[in-house]
Design brief:
Oligomer: single chain
Number of domains: 1
Strand content: 5-15%
Number of strands: 2
Shape: globular
Helix content: 40-55%
Structural class: mainly alpha
Radius of gyration: 16 Å
Largest sheet: 2 strands, antiparallel
Distance between the termini: 27 Å
Length: about 150
Amino acid sequence: MPISLRRRRAVYAAHRGVCPYCGASGATHVDHIVPRSDGGTDDLSNLILACGPCNFAKGGRRLAPEHEAELLAKAAAVRDVVAEIEKTGRRPRSTPKGGPPERINMLVSKEMRKEIRRFRFANEINSEGEAVRILLRQALRAEGML
């Protein structure tokens, strides 16, 4: 069963349109951290936003356990925000108990983004997304996941 439009919009609003894999803004794909094919659900704690190239490169594969655990923790951190958006159509006005909702810290560090840019220009690749997809495929091959 596909993810409802309301849930997609809520996930987008909670994650503020930022892809956790490459840091690109304007991410529009709702990605299952644990793929449905491996028993993943449409629960809010298993959904995260991703840009198209990263989502397609990841496909139905699982990430390395440490990266998967990090993404699951980030999805769980914004679960209440997503639920509130899904229910009311807007972000919560007051700060939830325990402090402000954690803004998603991207898996890709500033150094890695610089490396992506260098790779992109050295190989004359037109888009950053294409460079990320190529690098992600290389990393998955190196891990034996492709």
